[in-house]
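Step 1: inspect the first sequence and its C-alpha cells.
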Amino acid sequence: MAWIQLRIHTHRDNADLLGDLLMDQGSLSITYEDGQDEPIFEPKLGETPLWQDTVMIALFDAGTDLAPTIEFLESMPFLGKGFNHKIEQVEDKDWIREWMDSFHPIQFGSRLWICPSWREIPDPTAVNVILDPGLAFGTGTHPTTALCLEWLDSLDLSNQEVIDFGCGSGILAIAAIKLGAKKVTGVDIDYQAIDASKANAERNDVVDKLALYLPENQPANLQADVLVANILAGPLKELAPLIAEKVKIGGKLALSGLLQEQAQEVSDFYSQWFIMDPVSNKEDWSRLTGIRK
C-alpha cells in the first residue's frame, strides 16, 4: 500500500490545533519534526515541548484527494492562503523491518557489546547485553549512554556494589552486572522505567542481582562503591547532596546527560564532595567522573 504525506510548517503554539484538524480531515498519523535545527533542553516533568518552527507531517492513504484539505486549511487564520506546505508520495515499505535494520550491535570499550535481540552476537566471548529499543530511554546509541558504558567497561567491578541513579531501560545497571558487579541497585522516578529495567534484566538472566526502586521505596542509607547517573544537568545539581551521600568514601562517581557548556559548572559543584577528573566529551555531550572524598 502506498501513502501520501502533507508537510506543513507551523508555529508550536498552533501545533495541537493543527494536528486535530488534520486528523479530522482523515490523516492516519501525525509526526512532529524540528523545522530550524532548534535544540530543546531539559523539559519539565510531564511537558512535551515543541520547536518554535515545527514541521507537521500528516500521512494519508495514497488515493486521498488533498485539494479539499488544503482549501480547508487555507481558511484557518493561523495558516492563511498559500501557507507553507508540501505534498509528497511515500513508497510502501516494511516499516518494522526498516526500523529493525537501523539497529546494530555496538561495542563500548574493550569488552562490552550492546546487541539487539534480532541480531547475531558478533563476539560470543565478549560481555554481551541484549537490549531492544523500547519503553524507556537508553539503548547505547546516545552519546551520554555511550560515555557511561565506556566508563563502566574501564572499571574493575568485581565484588563492587553499584547504583544506577535514573536507571531508565536498565542498560547501565545490566552492563555493570555483566561486567562483574556483585549487586546493582536501580532507582528511577518513573514506574515504567522500573518495569522496563526488570524486563531487560530478565532477558539478560541477571534479575537476581538487580534491585529496583522508586525513590520513595529505596532503602534508607543506601550506599555503593560505584554510582552512575545519566540524567540532566538540572536534576544533577538539585540532587547533588543526595547523590553524594550514596557513594562510599573512596567510591567512584560518573555523571552524564550534560551538554559540554554545562559540564564545568556541574563539575565545580560536585567538587564539594568529590575529587573530580577532567571532563570527557563525545559530540556535544559530556561525562564527569570523580572519587568520593
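Step 2: inspect the second sequence and its C-alpha cells, then contrast the two.
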Amino acid sequence: MIRKHKWELIVSSLVILIPVLVGLLLWNRLPETLATHWGIAGQPDGYGRLPYAVFVPYLCLLAGHWFCFLVTANDPRNQNRNWKPIRLVLWIMPVLSNVCGAIMYALALGVKVSVSGIMVVAIGLMFVAIGNYLPKCRQNYTIGIKVPWTFASEENWNATHRFGGRVWMIGGVGIMLCALLPAGWNAGVMVAGIVILAVAPILYSYLYYRKQVKRGDEMMPIPSVHTRAGKIGTVLGLAILLFALAMLFTGKVETTFSDDYFSIKASYYDDLTVFYDRVESVEYRDSNVPGSRVFGVGSFRLLLGSFENEEFGNYTRYTYYNPDACVVLKVSGKTLVLSGQDKAETQAIYQELLAKTEK
C-alpha cells in the first residue's frame, strides 16, 4: 500500500510545505509577529513570532499528514482496495496547509480578506469532496462512518455510506452558501450544520440496523454498552460532549461593588478585583468594542481575557458575546472592557462605577 502511493505521498508532502517556501521568500516583508489562529468570527486569537509562524504550523501538518496516511495504509482492510478514499486522505492536509498559509500571509501584508468566509467555503468543499468518496469506501477500520451498526454488516455499511455521501454533498453546498451571511453568523450556522451532518448518518445507520434485526438478517455482534468498557466509553463520550456544550453556550459575568473596590466573577476564567483609586476614567459606549482574542475564553456566550485592537492595543475584556453596549475603563494605564448581559445591565454597571469613582 505504501509503495503503491509513495510518489503521491512525496508530492503531497511537498505541497504542504509550499507556505514555508513562500514565507522564506517574503521574510523581509513580514512583521515580527503574525496571526496564526482565528476565532469563530474570523478574528485572530492566536499569534506567533515570525520563525514560529513560517515553520511550526506546516511542519505539524506534515507530521499529521504522515500519521494519517500510515495509520490508513496499515489497516488490514485497506490492503489492495479503498484507493480512492486514500487519495482523499493524501490531499486534505495539503489543501488545508495552503489555505491557511494564504490567509496568514495576506493578513500579514495588509490585504483585507474574510477569514470566516474563506474557511466556511473551504469546509463546505471538504464535505462535498468527502461526500463524493463515501459511497466508494469499503468496510474498514480507519476511513468512513465507523459506528457499531456499520460494522454489524456490510449491507449496513454500504447503505449508510450511500446515504451519508448524498447528505454530505448537499450539506457541503449549504455550508458554502453560509459564506453569504455576516461574519460570526456564517460560522455559527456552519457549526450547527456540521453537527447535523455528523449525526444524520449515525442515526440512519442505527435505524437501518433496527430494520435488519426485525428482518432477522445475519449480522456480526456489536459491542454492548452494558459491558464495562462500553459503560466507560459512553460516560466519557457524554462527559466530553456536555463539557464542550457548556463551554460554548453557558456561563456568566457578575460585577459586584464594595466600598473600596469592585469584583468581577466570570465562568471558566480568573476573577478580577479592581480598586476604585486606580481607575483613571470610565466611559460608556453604546456599541460593542471589537477586538481579537490573544488569550482567554471565546465562545457563543462569553468573551474573557486578553484581547487586542487598533484603538487600545492589548486590553482586558470581561463581556458577553457581541454585547449591545460596553463600559471602557482606564485602570493604572491599562484598558478594561466590561458589559452586562444586556444594555440595561451594562448601563447600571456604568452608573455604579461613576458614583464610586467620583467620590
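Step 3: confirm your contrast with the notes below.
The chain has two domains: 6-220, 253-357. The chain has a mean pLDDT of 86.
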